[in-house]
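User: Hi! I'm working on a homework problem where we have to compare a predicted structure to a textbook description. Could you give me the structure for the chain below?
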Amino acid sequence: MSSRFPSALTRRRFLAGSAAAGAVLPLGPAWADTHRTFTLRAAPGRARLVPAPWGESDVWCYGGTVPGPGLRVRQGDRLRIEVENALAEETTVHWHGLRVPNAMDGVPHLTQAPITPGGTFAYEFDAVDAGTFWYHPHQRSFEQVGRGLYGALIIEEAEPPRVDRELLWVLDDWRLTQAAAIADDFGGFHDKSHAGRLGNTVTINGRVPDAVPVRAGERIRLRLINAANARIFALDFGNPAPRIIALDGQPVAPHAAPGGRVVLGPAMRADLILDVTGARGTTTSVTDRFSARDAYRLVDLTVVETRLRDAPPDWPMALVPNPLPEPDLTRALRHAVTFTGGMMGGMVERQMGLAGGGGMGGMMGGGMMNRMHDGGIWFVNGVAAEGHILDPLLVLERDATHVIAMTNATAFHHPIHLHGHSFRVLSRNGAPTARREWQDTVLMAPRERVEIAFVADNPGDWMFHCHILEHQAGGMMGVIRVA
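Assistant: Happy to help. Predicted structure tokens:
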């Protein structure tokens, strides 16, 4: 990870920083009843993303903070969230991963009129599923999210697992100038056609972190949210390795992370159980190893105070499943979706034996250049989205089981997100997944084929797109209609 900051700020110092308080985001208070009302005000603000001697950065944020206010409710609660737009441009709020009514999904022009400057909009829905979710704009999201507009939404289980403490880490990265200002180069062609807008500064809960104090023998529930535009995290916690208990808010059989790394593409979430070991003063580094050439220390876990217990507690970890309809694969209707385009895309398509080869291969193949006059860089079944008003990519029979076989015929990773539903990940490259996990965003590697299954029980027109926000802006977005 490169940095354009002065040499006095080393990579280690800049990525690790000195703001330990920024590593723990406090969650909300108890509730008076089952109806919860919140107000979110989207507006310009100031935030200290990096430590002194650098000053605060101009951001866009909810409620004057980055991340925005952490909304915390109980499963089954009714939410009313009044959004005030104090920006100089239109906005919306999308409730990522929540199964909300279509009119509450926050997609401009598709599910609602955008909230005009000075305007308001009230979102109302039930907290159907317990889990770790988040909220962010869907209007010019590549810039609005990139400037700091996002926050966590936690829906508590009726019977949460027993732990000593709960932490929430909202991960993000920022492209900052030498003056700690957010670089004003959103939507550039290179970012759209390659891996997206990658920053030079990683934060936890809006601050560059240093060390998080933990206690020997402590059991921690750690909720992770990747709010970055494009950065993919592969977090190595060292020993002992945490156990994953939920992905994208949905419970999964507790297990160690494959390969020892918790991998989160943009928009993805994971709930972990972390049992702390080691003597007082011991430090364990959490390292991001997604890029083998540029691994870096994200944050340290430092053992403080006295030991709580000598061995990990024998407390159950498993979460109660959410009320998701189980797909009936014996009667499933099948569909195919192919993602193409981007730099080197034509070469990948040819290697995979796909006709067209329309992506930018080698020196930007002519096929791609011929299609770029309309602004399309990425394609879903041969179509590049322009805005959110699209003819449906697929029309799905309501309440039926559907399997979507997806092919990533590009040279880049893509976290593919479906609005309004969660789906089971059935297979990767023809091999069944170990746990058939429920997710709402699945990370596809270059040249990978993934099958997902779900019951289309939520009617309406739903966005289906890559959550690398520059890829979405470059055309990798479609509409799936449930009717």
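For your comparison, note the following. Residues 167 and 222 are 5 Å apart (CA to CA). The longest helix spans residues 345-351. Good luck with the assignment!
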